[in-house]
Design goal:
By secondary structure, the protein is of the alpha+beta class. The chain is about 30% helix and about 25% strand. Strands 1-2 form a two-stranded antiparallel sheet. The longest helix is centred in the N-terminal third of the chain and has 30 residues, at about 15-45.
């Protein structure tokens, strides 16, 4: 009588629970890939302008609430004015 090995010759003996887990992982990967491709498809269908410009203005009022201590008159109040500009050019490939 010869001893039988518990490992099958092809190495593909999966229990029912293992097959269910593998199938579940395969379905999840398939759905993730499908969602990624759908997102990419929508992104390619979106029109984008050739150039965009933005001009902005900022105003900040600094008005500290500091007590007047002996020998210290407190911090002065002041305004800060500023601006910014942006220009973006989208390449058409």
């Amino acid at each position: 009588m010869t001893a039988r090995s518990s490992i099958p010759s092809n190495g593909a003996d999966y229990s029912a629970g293992c097959r269910t887990t593998i199938l579940r992982v395969f379905v999840q990967c398939f759905l993730l890939l499908r969602a990624a491709l759908l997102t990419a498809l929508v992104a390619t269908a979106t029109d984008s302008p050739t150039a965009e410009a933005f001009l902005g203005y900022n105003w900040v009022r600094f008005n500290p609430d500091t007590p007047n201590l002996p020998g210290f008159n407190g911090l002065p109040s002041f305004d800060l004015h500023g601006g910014n500009a942006q220009l973006a050019y989208n390449l058409r490939l």
